[in-house]
Design a protein that fits this description.
By secondary structure, the chain is an alpha/beta fold. Helix content is about 30%, strand content about 25%. The protein is built from 16 helices and 21 strands. The strands form five sheets. A seven-stranded parallel sheet has the order 10-9-8-5-4-3-11. Strands 12-15-16-21-18-19 form a six-stranded antiparallel sheet. Strand 18 and strand 19 form a beta hairpin. The longest helix is centred in the middle third of the chain and has 24 residues.
Length: about 550
């Protein structure tokens, strides 16, 4: 029986929580009193969570001497700003190196063994094959989790902890050539990996296994061929991380995950070489099956996404959204300054059920006077959309009542056919016919005139449409309009009010259209009523409109 829970997402006192936030720069937490800018940046974005590094060298500056006050100060800081917190354990690995390990670990290379290159040269890496390395890391992590539990278990400011950071070997080698590493490479592949290939015959690992001859046993080279060099590293790193996570959960059964420096996926990247283009053995798409087979304590394997092409991003979402295997999608790092990311975070949460989405380097979104930089406004708008819609997203995640709206470059329309109650919803991102696009006095037309459709860097229309009853919808989004219409007759005729653009806005009768929000109990509270021109020309959505409730009348 496991000593810990497999968590399906973030929660606070047992209630699901959608984490929207920012990760500070790597060294922001060294002096907790200096983090006011970090908190201010997340608040300016509209986030509800701040992710903060805990460097091993700060938490355990001397072996066995733990700086618990450092943790308490950070938790208190988040509490004072009304934010939740995720801690990032920078220990054995940080971006494929060991930069944040304590001096007493770095200096004792005999006890804490390094990765060796083929020529015997050591690199800035602790070996994942070393039990001493693993035990020292795990002891410190367990003490960290115990410190969090003692100080925060009742209030639950800390909602999760990241184990390591972008783990793997970034140093010009696919594997460790030390005596420990060489012995591991020559050992038989663990039976659990062979069994995983047999039970998941269509997975990527199984395809590599079959290509090498589908051997039932043998060393890493025999079983996986040329891939065996990175596979042995992936297995060692995954096992190491999961061991550390399990030890931590023994002290405090909190949501824990590890983040990922991505490989090139199906299309590749640069030289496409592990150890150069990504840390060898990382939980990239090429190694992900090994992590799925090995990891029992981790609650998520979370990709850091800085990609700027929607197709590649969606490939990542599909690979890492695996709730059926116990690994929900969570994006802990992403770009704060791109419209593509602002749109794709909506896709991640709506289509792929992401439990959280964070941007990296949150302090960078602020100007010197504390205002948001123009380039970060799309991310801020998306944060507000997600926060407004969070109660509905948590309730309808994975249900056919949730429809995700994300405009692709060059796209002017998105249609949802055959909605319940005999409705169709046409979402417009550009002007429709001669419709003049009325909104209210505080907003512009609510969509583009079509000039920015091909502008890759322009902020795009995006949001969510929820159908909660046959004639009831909720809308949260930005830069879009929704036109409702009854489904056309089955006899093939097209009624005039559907075929003439000028009649489109007046072909539906509304019982009510309101802007509002959900209170702490989940009740919808009306903040504004729309009528007349404000609803006749499509139901427009802006990021600052909260949640729009639409009640239609079926005739």
């Amino acid at each position: 029986m496991s000593q810990f829970t497999k968590h399906s997402g973030f929660s606070i006192h047992g209630k699901p929580f959608l984490s929207i936030g920012g990760q500070t720069h790597n060294s922001s937490s060294y002096f907790p009193q200096d983090m006011e800018i970090s908190y201010a940046s997340v608040e300016a974005l509209g986030g509800n969570t701040i992710a903060v590094p805990v460097p091993w060298e700060v938490f355990e500056p001397e072996e066995g001497n733990f700086n618990e006050e450092f943790i308490r100060q950070l938790i208190s800081g988040a509490r004072s700003h009304g934010l939740r917190m995720v801690f990032l354990w920078f220990a054995t690995w940080k971006n494929g190196t060991m930069e944040y390990t304590p001096s007493w670990v770095k200096a004792d290379t005999e006890r804490f063994q390094r990765v060796l290159l083929k020529d015997g040269a050591p690199i800035l890496q602790l070996s994942a094959h070393s039990a001493a390395n693993r035990e020292a890391d795990a002891r410190a992590f367990r003490h960290l989790m115990e410190t969090i539990r003692q100080y925060d278990a009742e209030e639950q400011i800390v909602i999760g902890v990241q184990v390591e950071n972008e783990a793997g070997i970034l140093g010009g080698t696919k594997r460790d050539f030390s005596p420990l590493g060489q012995a591991a490479y020559e050992e038989n592949v663990p039976a659990e990996l062979i069994r995983y290939c047999e039970e998941h015959p269509h997975c990527l690992l199984a395809s590599k296994w079959k290509k090498a001859g589908a051997a039932s046993q043998g060393n890493w080279r025999d079983v996986f061929g040329s891939y065996g060099a990175e596979a042995v590293t992936a297995h060692a790193v995954a096992s190491y991380i999961d061991y550390v996570a399990a030890e931590g959960k023994k002290a405090y059964d909190l949501f824990v995950y590890t983040n990922v420096w991505l490989d090139g996926g199906s299309r590749g990247m640069r030289s496409n070489l592990a150890g150069l283009d990504w840390p060898s053995g990382c939980a990239g798409m090429g190694n992900l099956d090994i992590y799925h087979a090995v990891c029992r304590a981790l609650d998520s394997i979370a990709p850091d996404i800085y990609l700027q092409e929607a197709g590649r991003i969606e490939e990542v979402y599909k690979a890492y959204s695996r709730p059926e295997l116990g690994f929900p999608l969570y994006v802990p790092e992403s770009s704060p300054f791109t419209a593509v990311n602002a749109s794709m975070m909506i896709e991640a949460v709506g289509t792929y059920g992401a439990i959280g989405y964070h941007i990296f380097g949150s302090e960078s979104v602020l100007e010197a006077d504390g205002t948001l930089k123009a380039g970060s406004l799309p991310a801020m708008h998306s944060f507000h959309i997600l926060n407004h819609a969070a109660p509905l997203l948590l309730k309808y995640r994975g249900a056919d009542s949730l429809h995700t709206i994300v405009q692709r470059t060059g796209e002017d329309t998105l249609v949802f056919d055959e909605l319940k109650g005999g409705w169709k919803a046409s979402v417009y991102f550009a002007k429709y016919g001669n419709d003049w696009g009325s909104t209210d006095f505080a907003h512009e037309t609510g969509y583009s005139e079509g000039k920015n459709l091909l502008d890759y860097q322009a902020e795009k229309g995006r949001g969510f449409l929820f159908q909660t009853a046959n004639d009831e919808f909720y809308l949260a989004g930005d830069k879009l309009r929704v036109y409702f219409q009854p489904t056309e007759p089955e006899d093939g005729s097209i009624p005039v009010h559907l075929s003439v653009a000028e009649l489109m806005p007046t072909n539906v009768e509304f019982l009510s259209v309101t802007e509002g929000h959900f209170d702490e109990l989940g009740n919808y509270r009306i903040d504004k009523v729309r009528s007349g021109d404000e609803m006749r020309h499509g139901i427009w959505a802006s990021w600052d409109c909260g949640v729009i409730r639409i009640k239609l009348l079926s005739l």
